[in-house]
Amino acid sequence: MYVAVKGGEKAIENAHAWLAEERRGSTNIAELSIAQIREQLSLAVNRVMAEGSLFDPDLAALAIKQARGDLIEAIFLIRAYRTTLPRIGYSNPVETGQMACDRRISATFKDAPGGQVLGPTFDYTHRLLDFKLAAEGEVSSAPESRPRTEPTPHITEFLKGEDIIQDEPSSDTIPGDLTREPMEFPADRPLRLQSLTRGDEGFVLGMAYSTQRGYARNHAFVGELRIGKVAVEMDVPELGFAIEIGEIELTECETVNQFKGSKTEPPQFTRGYGLVFGQSERKSIAMALVDRALRWEELGEDNLGAPAQDEEFVLSHADNIQATGFLEHIKLPHYVDFQSELELVRNLRREAEERIMPREAAE
Amino acid sequence: MSEYNFAYLDEQTKRMIRRAILKGLAVPGYQVPFASREMPMPYGWGTGGVQVSAATLTPEDTFKVIDQGADDTTNAVSIRKFFENTADVETTEETEKATVIQTRHRIPEAKLTEDQILVYQVPIPEPLRFLEPRETETRKMHSLEEYGLMHVKLYEDISQHGAISTSYAYPVKVSDRYVMDPSPIPKFDNPKLEMDAIQLFGAGREQRIYAVPPHTKVVSLDFEDYPFEATKADHPCDLCGAEDSYLDEVIMDDAGNRMFVCSDTDYCRSRRAAGHVGRLAEEGAA
């Protein structure tokens, strides 16, 4: 007897109920709180904020909990929420030169004003599983010193003083916003940077890595990497001046790239730029490398045909919410298109056999 | 979900989408870029169609959602539920009663009228995409009406396979101007693209909207000596006996026995209600 597969509401409801149960896991184990996720899985929270394009650690932590730790799913939850929020206005550009740095390192100068500040980094940890953590050991508090109060200058400013690094023309033009206007190519640099900062960390990392391995190599040095908090200020028309409305944590990476000059530019250092919400080092360095690779045209370099130089390729595929949606949609029903393919292949086979058969019969 | 606006999207966004729809209707078959929003369902699940429906629906509308021709496929159920929750519109499974029909992969069998709007979910709006991956290039090709590549592809199909080997998402030319992807409907549905109803196509991830106004000329691409042919499984429906409807093939048992049933569930239901009986109807009705 024929029983059609009916998707019915009941099946969907039951699936959701089961999902909720699986998300919770064994009820013999204490439930995770949002605060625990926010405090103890903060790098996951940072990634969700960065790629979700919404700075709110509590909501990001909630999304991670709801998504059972699937970060792309969590990013999706944040994006879908973000898009419903009204735009009250736009902040002034943040001054990363005024950042209260937790971490600030330069790979190009042994020392510079502001110093090298390692901060809370994995860099020199030995990657040995710490079984003490399994026993829920308490941590001893880290030694403290007085924070630097004066602003920490950008390393590239020193190179600029010597006129040996490409100047970035300043502009008061309001940058585009790919969440409000459809992306069109060619995209200008602000749009590219917006796309990269919310792009998938794995994708941007892979693209950046490809440039290091020779697909449009751009000889990057990490001129500076800084992580810390910056104030967000907004002009309030009623007041006539800007007020601070909060602070956010950012990771900023400026690369200094060797450049022998081109048809249009003299020999000098060039720049790549990465700016990402939260402590997101890997992402911001990768972003800077890809940004630099995408600037080939502006700097009069050759198009080597490398993927990371190809703006349309990079920007069209960087978004993991778009990518995962389209990838996973192929599990939805496709009976109708498949049926038409079935008939086509059957027809083509029948015709091919008819062409072959008479020949064989004649042999 | 009362904290959301009618049909989920805010009025500003709906206005932006309506502008794109109107532009699409004014330039039939032209892909209008629009600032697609992130919806609470994934890209690929019909976010383009959902946004077009959200911008089209009014509280007086009656809404129908089909996926693969059926009202009861999971995603059709889910989208219908979404608008029941956010727009509180009447929903129906009966094609005739619906004023807005959102569809994925099919055009209903019943003839649509001037009072209806058909909204398609579109995965890849660009008919030239698999011939030329770059949007910058394909937009140029459309603006220059440079469709030679498409004809070469169809010609190569014939020279290699003896037939045009496109069975769904079969390209059409709209109003003698734009080559358009009718979304992945089977080519059986292509002749129905010339209809009395408004047809709107929404591609969310690709941020494009396009349209075919009522009574617009829509021609499936072909050659004089290899004319376009709308094909379907060579069977009547095993439940309602229809010979003119597109069929799904269902594997019934371990021995691989098949039955063929209308993919348009409402069409099949209404025919059976009118007393039409197919080969396996009794079992099917059980």
List the helices and strands and how they pair.
The complex is a heterodimer of chains A (363) and B (286).
Chain A: H1 9-24, H2 34-40, H3 42-52, H4 57-66, H5 71-82, E1 100-105, H6 131-134, H7 155-161, H8 189-197, H9 201-212, E2 220-236, E3 241-257, E4 270-277, H10 281-294, H11 311-317, H12 320-328, H13 335-362
Helix pairs in contact in A: 2-4, 3-4, 3-5, 4-5, 8-10, 9-10
Chain B: H1 11-26, E1 32-33, H2 47-56, E2 62-67, H3 74-86, E3 90-91, E4 100-104, E5 117-121, H4 135-143, H5 148-161, E6 172-174, E7 178-180, E8 198-203, E9 208-212, E10 218-220, E11 247-251, E12 258-262, H6 265-273, H7 281-285
Parallel strand pairs in B: 2-3, 2-4, 4-5, 5-8
Antiparallel strand pairs in B: 1-9, 6-7, 6-10, 8-9, 11-12
Helix pairs in contact in B: 1-2
Short description:
Chain A is an alpha+beta fold and 363 residues long.
Keywords:
heterodimer, A: 363 residues, alpha+beta, 3 domains, four-stranded antiparallel beta sheet, 4 strands, 13% strand, disordered N terminus, B: 286 residues, alpha/beta, Rossmann fold, 2 domains, 7 helices, 12 strands
- Cα(first) to Cα(last) distance of chain B is 38 Å
CATH superfamily of the largest domain in chain B: Bacterial phosphonate metabolism protein PhnH
Domains of chain A (count): 3
Count up the domains of chain B: 2
Quote the average pLDDT of chain A.
92
Number of strands of chain B: 12
Describe the structure.
The complex is a heterodimer of chains A (363) and B (286). A 4-stranded antiparallel beta sheet of chain A has the order 1-2-3-4. Chain A is globular, with a radius of gyration of 26 Å. Chain A is of the alpha+beta class and 363 residues long. Chain A has helices at residues 9-24, 34-40, 42-52, 57-66, 71-82, 131-134, 155-161, 189-197, 201-212, 281-294, 311-317, 320-328, 335-362; strands at 100-105, 220-236, 241-257, 270-277. Chain A has 13 helices and 4 strands. Chain A starts with 8 loop residues before the first helix and ends with a helix. By secondary structure, chain B is of the alpha/beta class. Chain B folds into 2 domains: 11-220, Rossmann fold; 247-285, no CATH class. In chain B, the strands form 3 sheets. A 7-stranded mixed beta sheet of chain B has the order 1-9-8-5-4-2-3. In chain B, strand 2 (62-67), helix 3 (74-86) and strand 3 (90-91) form a beta-alpha-beta unit. In chain B, helix 1 packs across helix 2. The mean pLDDT of chain B is 94. Classes of the chains: A alpha+beta (363), B alpha/beta (286).
